[in-house]
Amino acid sequence: MLTRIDHIGIACFDLDRTVEFYRATYGFEVFHTEINEEQGVREAMLKINETSDGGASYLQLLEPTREDSAVGKWLAKNGEGVHHIAFGTADVDADAGAIRDKGVRVLYDEPRTGSMGSRITFLHPKDCHGVLTELVTAADPSGQH
Ligand code: CMX
Ligand code: CO
Predict the structure, then answer these.
(1) Does position 145 have pLDDT exceeding 60, yes or no?
(2) How many A from CA of 46 to the centre of ligand 1?
(3) Nearest ligand to the C-alpha atom of residue 116
């Protein structure tokens, strides 16, 4: 069951400058940063609020580490902006399977590693009314990152 908006993924050209914008404009601080080579991103997670399922909602600021990555290609075509949304679940395997059975393309056969040791998969944007949609199970089974 999808129980929270886990994050909104925002593509940017310069992570440090974008982090500074969110800090200076809204007062949001960086909760976590990492490089995910498999996804081709350097990212910063800004925690916005905790959620009733024991998890939290974040902004995920994404800078590509290479031009041929998903975010690199998207930035070259569209410029900066909202790249994807992510729903949180306690069981990404079950939810991805159930959604696949409804005819929506799930991009990975098995979930891969996302932010902070989470397990993630994606739904094809062409099957989701133009929205690239991620499913996330946090590393901590309670849902708290
Ligand atoms: N949102 C909406 N539509 C998108 C999109 C996005 N983020 N990315 C691509 N599309 C659309 C394109 O506009 C294009 O549409 P048209 O054919 O109408 O022009 C179509 O999908 C194909 O796009 P493409 O540029 O040819 O890109 P690919 O097919 O090579 O890749 C996708 C698209 C979704 C399969 C790829 O981006 C992907 O695998 N995404 C999942 C991984 C990811 O995004 N990782 C980064 C984030 C990591 C994290 O969140 O931790
Ligand atoms: Co994401």
Answers:
(1) no
(2) 23
(3) 1
